[in-house]
Amino acid sequence: MADAPVRIDKFLWAARFFKTRTLATDAVDGGRVKLNGERVKPARAVKVGDMLIVPIGWDEAEVVVKAVSDKRGSATIAQTLYEETPDSASARAARAENRRMAREPAQDIKARPTKRDRRQLDKLS
Fold first, then answer.
1. Global pTM value
2. Do the beta carbons of residue 61 and residue 53 sit within 8 Å?
3. What does the alpha-carbon distance between residue 30 and residue 25 come to, in Å, rounded to a whole number?
4. Residue 54: pLDDT over 90
5. Domain extents for the chain?
6. Distance separating alpha carbons of residues 35 and 79, to the nearest angstrom
7. What is the architecture of the domain spanning 6-124?
């Protein structure tokens, strides 16, 4: 953990938001990760105090960079690199609760819908 700026793709990989650096690079290139509200390229440097919007599963989290590192360490070390904003945490919890309460009917279908499944889906719409 140094104070020198680190590439955004390396930081996302080191902070364990993505499993590989390639996935982190693809997410940044695709515009799913934003630095201080702007789309950036994977080579953009991240420094302490920057605000990142990072996709996490179905949601996205707004985090503040607390420390930077280009080395991938344990999960406990990775959690010290950033802090999620309270607004973001409460919004993610509310969206998760909404998803839990109003499940998407198609999520239960594992393969191509059968005639019965299609009829049930049509009945809902």
1. 0.77
2. yes
3. 8
4. yes
5. 6-124
6. 18
7. Roll (3.10)
pLDDT for 2 beyond 70: no
Q: Of the candidates 57, 71, 76, 70, which has an alpha carbon nearest to the alpha carbon of residue 17?
A: 57
Residue 31: left if φ>0, alpha if ψ -120 to 50, beta else—which one? Answer: left
The alpha helices in 45-125, defined as continuous H runs, are 75-79, 86-101, 115-124
CA–CA distance from 113 to each of 47, 102, 104, 119, 125 (Å)?
Answer: 48, 20, 14, 9, 15
Vertex 60, ends 92 and 21: CA angle to 5°?
140
CA 115 to chain CA centroid, nearest Å:
36
What is the reported pLDDT for 106?
66
Tokens of 125: 């719409």
Q: In the prediction, which pLDDT does 125 show?
A: 74
